[in-house]
Amino acid sequence: MARVVIENLGKTFKGPKGEAISAVNNLNLTVEDREFLVLVGPSGCGKTTTLRLIAGLDEISTGNISIDGRVINTVPPKDRDLAMVFQTFALYPHMTAYENMAFGLQVRKLPKKEIGQRVREAAEMLDIKDCLNRLPEALSGGQRQRVALGRAIVRKPKVFLFDEPLSNLDAPMRLQMRKELHKLHTQLGSTMIFVTHDQSEAMALGDRIAVMKQGVLQQVDQPATIYNQPANLFVANFIGSPAINIFQGRILRDAQGLSFQFDTAQDITLNLDRALEDRLQTRIGKEVILAIRPEHISYATPASGANTNWIVSATIELAESMGAETYLYAKLGATSFTVRTAAASSASPGQSANFLFDLHHAHFFDPNTGMVIL
Ligand code: ATP
Description:
By secondary structure, the chain is an alpha+beta fold. The chain has helices at 47-55, 97-107, 112-126, 141-153, 171-188, 199-205, 223-228, 233-238, 274-280, and strands at 4-14, 20-31, 36-40, 62-67, 70-71, 82-85, 159-163, 191-196, 208-213, 216-221, 245-254, 257-262, 265-271, 287-292, 297-299, 311-321, 326-332, 335-341, 352-357, 363-365. Helix content is 25%, strand content 34%. The strands form 4 sheets. The protein has a 6-stranded mixed sheet, with helices on both faces. A 5-stranded antiparallel sheet has the order 13-12-11-14-20. It has a 5-stranded antiparallel sheet with strand order 15-19-16-17-18, with no helix packed on it. One of its GO terms (cellular component) is ATP-binding cassette (ABC) transporter complex, substrate-binding subunit-containing.
């Protein structure tokens, strides 16, 4: 069992001029037993600090961290039963892979036989049996990362903490290690907390994802929920590639009902259907932000039929073929947007085309608070 409960956690650092830097602000988060939780957010949002507070490498300013009901705020790092894997791998350069993996167990005075057994088991799991006698300098980046993982695994900790462990690997190796981490998580059945600034890594790895911004937790949920039901504009914008399209506009009312008018193309309005009217009733005459993912805008065809209210004519600026799909970059007034289409496109820059905006998959946000309008 290893359930990590973080309550009202805060960390304030002192800046160079004595000013307070709030790195983590009133964080409440529970990581369930055996869960793979990914903490994600842009640089400086407080992910690493959160991990370091859990590991005991920094002292907490406010709040509590407990594991399985035991508050660990003041427990020394070595007694927390956690293992941390760093971005830099942090291997001892003068020790072989075997010695690097065995070191922590030797310090804990485990019998030699058991150490050997645990190292061999981990090496088997990570497919680095043939590398055990080599120094780190004679290992590839991927192999070094495996040794760093092995060093954590042999300790059989309650909780694994990963601080951007894949970011020093090249792209193919990163993908490979992602798969292996998945496998490892299933095999070990341990609780894992993984920090990254890469949203696609978060989406691929997390049972749940916690999105942070400026020390504040924005949303925590399963990847699909974060993607499809973002709680605010920041989350909508941070998660997903290509990024979600954002249009500023306002809700109008006329004889036909409610519609969304684009700020930068005021002659274009999208008539809202009943369900959207109900949601946006309170926003009549007010500014709102319409956010729609690139895959929810498509070429309008005669089959678009019933949704002709949601067709917009825009100018294509660029078509980028990605093989299986094409990204179209288009412009509506002064606002650029991206369309992700499966079809190969013969569109040429400057050409105008009709696009269907599938508003059933669109999100509306309050421009002042950034919060989703429900
Ligand atoms: P990155 O992805 O760049 O590692 P992060 O999300 O992990 O960023 P943190 O390293 O946790 O962010 O930093 C959060 C904030 O706290 C930042 O503003 C950072 O400058 C500040 N900070 C972190 N450590 C210290 C420190 N030891 N002293 C002062 N400020 C710090």
